[in-house]
Amino acid sequence: MLFLPIYDDNPTRRTPVVTMALIALCVMVFLWQLSLGARAGNLAVYSFGLVPAVLFGYADLPEPLRVVPPWMSVVTSMFMHGGFLHLAGNMLYLWIFGNNVEDSMGRGRFVVFYLLCGTAAALAQSFAAPTSEVPMVGASGAIGGVLGAYLVLHPRANVGVFFWFIIIVRVISVPAVLVLGFWFVGQILSGVTTPTSDDSGGVAFWAHVGGFVMGAALIPFFKRPEVRLLEPAHSRPFEVVPPGTRLRRGSVPEAGDRRRPFRW
Q: pTM to 2 decimals?
């Protein structure tokens, strides 16, 4: 069974320049990672990814890998990814939900908001496993903040979800409170049941949770004064989109690949 968000029904007033720039930057960084080759690419993950043990002073990187200060890796790690599916899932989730959040607060504030959510996400995962020597890379902690803000702004907005079960294929409009609420609960349950001391890498679930909570908490302070919270829906929920209807946006789910490094 596949249950996949692919677009939402919320209009925007301005072109989401920052959202598109973040996507472009992450793609360019990923292409740079690929250009390095397998060995150098893995070393770059340690140089620019976030290693909790290094951040908190429990370990040190070898001298050739000390490219940025440990605190700076909190930021650089947000723009690196562990594989194509990891990148695609994060960027397309950002494309679906980021434009409305950017529209609610303006471009400058959105940059600050995004970085704060990414920082909260990185620290949440790091505090969960402070001695871990596994590098963390990915934007989904910051994007979790975008999802948390979107839920507070537009809980009744409808998200077009691609549903596939054996021979049943449909696109269904589902309220954001259900789509994002189930996502958030899933991250908590996965975080509780996944050992944080496991050095085999995987998905950094607590980064997702930390980013989401930070985004939901910050949005009342970052939104423009005229923007309301808990906006009403723009369409009716649980409608089935007729086959052949032109879809406005596309998405893929976050990659669940459980290999090194931690992906968030």
A: 0.88
Instruction: Give the DSSP per-residue string, 223-236.
Output: S-TTPPSSPPPSS-
Q: Map residue 145 onto helix, strand or coil.
A: helix
Q: Is 225 exposed, middle or buried (0-12, 13-18, 19+ CB in 10 A)?
A: exposed
Per-residue pLDDT of the chain (264 residues; tens, 9 = 90+): 566 788 898 888 899 999 999 999 999 999 999 999 999 999 999 999 999 999 999 999 999 999 999 999 999 999 999 999 999 999 989 999 999 999 999 999 999 999 999 999 999 999 999 999 999 999 999 999 999 999 999 999 999 887 777 776 778 889 999 999 999 999 999 988 877 655 656 788 999 999 999 999 999 999 999 999 999 888 888 788 665 555 444 333 333 333 355 555
Task: Report long-range pairs for 18-22 (Cβ below 8 Å, ≥24 apart).
Answer: 18/102, 18/107, 18/110, 18/111, 18/114, 19/94, 19/95, 19/98, 19/99, 19/102, 19/110, 22/94, 22/98, 22/114, 22/139
Instruction: Compute the C-alpha angle 175/264/171, nearest 5°.
Output: 30
